[in-house]
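Aim 2 progress update. The chain analyzed this quarter is reproduced below.
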Amino acid sequence: MASKVLKVKLWDAEDGKKWKRSVQDIEGEVLCVSQFTLLASVKKGNKPDFHKSALPKEARELYDSFIGGVRTLYQAERVKDGIFGAMMDVALVNDGPVTIDIDSDPPPMENVSGLPEGELEGEFFKGHLSKTFDVPVRTAYELPASLLE
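Predicted structure tokens:
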């Protein structure tokens, strides 16, 4: 998780191209706020349910491990944090209308490409794509098998 946070491309390149540089690339600072250990659900009713939250001791260990990993993998002096479990007022300016959820245990993804099943022939995967217009159109494709590994 610490490595992902440091390597994810969130900043524009100097030529203006989007999503090209990481916090390491821009030599930015990292602010880690321990609120990630609080997990509430409002699936049932309107009152937050914290039953899936980590217990305070476990949450502290997770947080310390995460912040330690970020400091080890980056420049420790550029990684800031608050006080675990304390009431904190954090002021920041959000840059853009984007929220990115980085999950340490994402659910399995089946048929991520959405492509129909096909056959592996030699070094190429062969199949067909279908698009629905007023009239059905079929487009054949060949992909190197190495892309599917």
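The mean pLDDT is 77. The beta strands are 30-32, 79-81, 119-121, 124-131, 137-144. These observations will guide the mutagenesis experiments scheduled for the next reporting period.
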